[in-house]
Write a structure and sequence with these properties.
By secondary structure, the chain is mostly helical.
């Protein structure tokens, strides 16, 4: 019967999803257990920080500047109706530090660095490099996964901070340079209203949580990918989609808890 076949198919999909979640959790625990081994692999860590962090700077800076300029323009158009255009610095900084900086950085990171990590690890699996490491008594978790995981975890909060800083400058250029907002009022309002403990620190916590999730998904999808060209391609796509869903969902939860 049609409904019975549909129910059976739904059950298979559900069981596969549960099995993937179980493998992902066990994989995450394996990565955490292997973290102490990184003390002797600082060169690998530095290489990965350059690969996933430094090489992502261009898109982060350009995106941050663009978002900040748009925030400055739109914020001014809304605030000027209430005679509060001098609060443009506060509105721009709070929007970036609390929400847009961590969230957009995580999404851009997933699209640029996360997908690259998944593809790289997936290709190692296709070419049996991971199996060769195991045959030589080299743990691929310690050698391949941990440096990339930690590099992503370190890079994302730093990129989020750069995104927010460049965004504030973009809002300043538009507000003070093009729309005539007093530059002193822009910076003084931002300094007096943006709290380090409540705003900056909470934004940093968000970026760290997003970094853990983005790094975890990226390396797991590569490690768990089907060792074929199509399998690596699908794993790369899943990395971007799953990271986006996870970041957006966690952002709502963290915002509700923090603010």
């Amino acid at each position: 019967m049609i409904w019975l076949d549909s129910l059976q198919e739904f059950g298979q999909i559900t069981l596969k999803a549960i099995a993937r979640m179980g493998r992902g959790n066990l994989f995450f625990l394996s990565v955490l257990r292997a973290l102490p081994s990184l003390r002797g692999g600082t060169d690998l860590l530095a290489q990965q920080i350059y690969s996933v962090g430094v090489l992502s700077l261009q898109i982060i800076m350009v995106s941050g500047l663009s978002v900040g300029m748009v925030l400055g323009l739109q914020g001014y158009n809304m605030l000027v109706d209430f005679g509060a255009e001098q609060s443009l610095g506060q509105a721009t900084a709070l929007s970036l530090v609390r929400e847009l900086g961590p969230v957009l950085t995580a999404l851009l990171f997933a699209g640029r660095a996360g997908s690259a990590l998944t593809a790289e690890i997936g290709l190692m699996k296709v070419t049996e490099q991971l199996s060769a490491m195991e045959m030589m008594a080299v743990d691929p978790i310690k050698r391949v996964i941990v440096p990339r995981f930690v590099a992503a975890l370190i890079s994302l909060p730093m990129l989020a901070a750069i995104f927010s800083a460049i965004g504030v400058l973009g809002g300043f250029f538009v507000g003070a340079g093009l729309l005539g907002v007093d530059s002193g009022a822009f910076w003084s309002q931002m300094q007096s209203k943006v709290s380090f403990g409540e705003d900056v620190l909470n934004g940093f916590i968000k970026s760290v949580v997003f970094g853990v999730v983005a790094a975890w998904i990226a390396v797991f999808e590569g490690y768990d990918a089907v060792p074929t060209t199509e399998g690596v391609s699908r794993a790369t796509t899943r990395t971007v989609v799953e990271t986006a869903f996870a970041v957006l969902g966690l952002d709502f939860i963290l915002t509700a808890v923090m603010f």
